[in-house]
């Protein structure tokens, strides 16, 4: 018999033990607190379609999608839980209803598959779990949905997580998403190749967003837009003392928590030359008027879709001539990139369109050792000294969405209606880069928008956030007036 890894421990060290009399006393005299009027969530019909699409690829096979479990941050405190994206995609369960250790099972049936959601439902008052389990007890973590409430809201038959082991005893052909929940990993026999393929299939299904997903992404982007306004309003405070980048970061986090679930990824608030560090998330630098601040931030909404937006903004609201030159070049590269987003275009087309503008701009500035044309040859790429990352990626439940899709359907594939991607060229002139005159050194600019591929071209979902250099200046002026 396989040894099942232990789920979360019930009680931790420093809790004061309860005697039997107290436990008995606590088990009684609680009113019924079931929720009435639980309505089916809007996502129900979309999630059912998604499940039937993946099920159709695996007739007769049991499919297991774990949500994941707790992850210790320090001793007995955990990171905030976030469900695995494949689980979120196939159930539609939003962050505030998601319970760690949940598992979605698609069980083969005569018609296809039946869906079962294994969860740890709300703790009954007559068990010690209620008051003594700091990971599941309602006294500790608050109310969760009951099994009935979950069924009512998400339209999936619910079973208690403790019965998953029973299901596993019937070892019919089963494929599971691995590395998410050690219990699932140990309960079902591993099929490395076929399970890797299942992971790819899910990622590939997620390439094309349904109507619900597009609306949720738009919601995430609209909240992110308000978060950018909050950050600009915080510029004077940020510039007035030490570690102003943290003030900017915190301003955005407030908006993410107020209107969304979380950040989709750690905010990059990179003032001055920090903008040239692509993943600057320390954010412990000062914010100085006269410099630019590159901010890459995205709100994740309750349904766990995230925005991914970058703006590079003059802290005092005015670009210097050198800043404006680099900014305008990135702006034009991004315009060219967005122009190239249309159904049928090769994935690389928007990247190359943006790179062509950048290479030509750098040639004009006089920093390329060869012509732009020569630099653009695949084995040359001298312009890439100042722009090392690719120009975009898919966006959805994960900020770098669908990363497990096969090359032929993503990086070597074509854009299709319903895909959502980022277009995010940048130029980064390191502070010690002798190729540029001193006044340019330390300037880093990225402009990142979120773009939906439509039937005839594209729609920039984040177009309400100013990016034209003049509009950026007006934006700051209006907010700081
Ligand atoms: N924020 C990560 C990215 O832009 O890809
Ligand atoms: Mn991005
Ligand atoms: Mn980004």
Notes on the protein architecture:
- The protein has about 475 residues and is α+β, with helices and mostly antiparallel strands.
- It folds into two domains: about 20-205, Creatine Amidinohydrolase, Chain A, domain 1; about 210-480, Creatine Amidinohydrolase (Alpha-Beta Complex), CATH 3.90.230.10.
- It is built from 16 helices and 17 strands.
- The chain has helices at about 20-25, 45-55, 85-90, 130, 140, 145-155, 165-170, 180-185, 190-205, 210-235, 235-240, 245-260, 320-340, 350-365, 370-375, 470-480; strands at about 60-65, 70-75, 75-80, 105-110, 115-120, 155-160, 175, 260-265, 270, 290-295, 300, 310-315, 420-425, 425-430, 445, 450-455, 460.
- The strands form six sheets. It has a five-stranded mixed sheet with strand order 6-5-4-1-7.
- Strand 16 (about 450-455) and strand 17 form a beta hairpin.
- Helix 10 packs antiparallel against helix 12 (about 245-260).
- It is globular and about 80 Å long.
- It starts with 19 loop residues before the first helix and ends with a helix.
- One manganese (II) ion (MN) binds next to loops.
Please write out the topology.
Elements: H1 20-26, H2 44-56, E1 62-66, E2 72-74, E3 77-78, H3 85-91, E4 103-108, E5 113-119, H4 129-132, H5 138-141, H6 147-154, E6 157-160, H7 164-169, E7 174-176, H8 182-187, H9 192-205, H10 211-233, H11 235-239, H12 244-259, E8 262-263, E9 268-271, E10 292-297, E11 299-300, E12 309-314, H13 321-339, H14 349-365, H15 372-375, E13 420-423, E14 426-428, E15 444-446, E16 449-453, E17 458-460, H16 469-480
Parallel strand pairs: 1-7, 5-6
Antiparallel strand pairs: 1-4, 2-3, 4-5, 8-11, 9-10, 10-12, 13-16, 14-15, 16-17
Helix pairs in contact: 10-12, 13-14
The structure holds glycine (GLY) and manganese (II) ion (2 copies).
One manganese (II) ion binds at residues 308, 393, 422, 424, 448.
């Amino acid at each position: 018999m396989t040894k099942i890894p232990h789920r979360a421990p019930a009680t931790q060290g420093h809790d004061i033990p309860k005697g039997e009399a107290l436990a008995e006393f606590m088990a009684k005299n609680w009113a019924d607190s079931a929720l009435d009027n639980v309505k089916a969530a809007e996502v129900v019909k979309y999630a059912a379609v998604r499940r039937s699409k993946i099920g159709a690829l695996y007739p007769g096979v049991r499919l297991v999608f774990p949500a994941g479990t707790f992850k210790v941050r320090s001793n007995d405190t955990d990171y905030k839980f976030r469900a695995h994206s494949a689980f979120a995609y196939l159930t539609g369960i939003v962050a505030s209803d998601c319970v760690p250790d949940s598992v979605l099972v698609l069980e083969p049936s005569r018609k296809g598959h039946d869906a079962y959601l294994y969860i740890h439902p709300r703790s009954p008052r007559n068990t010690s779990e209620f008051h003594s389990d700091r990971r599941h007890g309602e006294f500790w973590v608050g109310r969760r949905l009951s099994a009935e409430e979950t069924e009512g809201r998400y339209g999936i038959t619910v079973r208690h997580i403790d019965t998953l082991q029973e299901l596993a005893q019937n070892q019919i052909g089963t494929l599971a998403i691995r590395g998410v929940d050690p219990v699932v990993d140990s309960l079902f026999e591993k099929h490395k190749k076929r399970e890797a393929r299942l992971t790819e299939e899910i990622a590939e299904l997620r390439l094309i967003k349904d109507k619900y997903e597009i609306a949720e992404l738009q919601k995430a982007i609209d909240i992110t837009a308000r978060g950018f306004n909050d950050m600009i309003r915080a510029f004077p405070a940020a510039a007035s003392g030490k570690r102003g980048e943290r003030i900017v970061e915190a301003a955005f986090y407030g908006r993410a928590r107020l209107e969304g679930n979380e950040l989709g990824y750690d905010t990059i608030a990179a003032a001055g030359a920090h903008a040239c560090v692509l993943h600057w998330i320390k954010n412990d630098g000062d914010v100085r008027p006269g410099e630019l601040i590159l901010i890459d931030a995205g709100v994740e909404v309750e349904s766990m879709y995230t925005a991914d937006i970058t703006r590079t903004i003059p802290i005092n609201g005015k670009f210097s001539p050198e800043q404006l030159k680099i900014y305008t070049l990135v702006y034009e590269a991004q315009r060219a990139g967005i122009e190239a987003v249309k159904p049928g275009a090769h994935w690389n087309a928007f990247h190359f369109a943006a790179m062509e503008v950048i290479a030509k701009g750098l040639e004009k500035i006089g920093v390329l050792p060869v012509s732009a044309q020569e630099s653009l040859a695949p084995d040359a790429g001298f312009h890439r000294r100042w722009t090392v990352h690719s120009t975009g990626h898919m966006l959805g439940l994960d900020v770098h969405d669908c990363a497990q899709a096969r090359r032929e359907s993503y990086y070597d594939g074509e854009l299709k209606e319903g895909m959502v991607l980022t277009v995010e060229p940048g130029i980064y002139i390191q502070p010690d880069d002798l190729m540029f005159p001193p006044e340019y050194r330390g300037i880093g600019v990225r402009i990142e928008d979120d773009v939906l591929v439509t039937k005839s071209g594209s729609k920039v979902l984040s177009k309400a956030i100013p990016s034209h250099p003049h509009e950026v200046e007006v934006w700051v002026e209006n907010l700081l007036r």
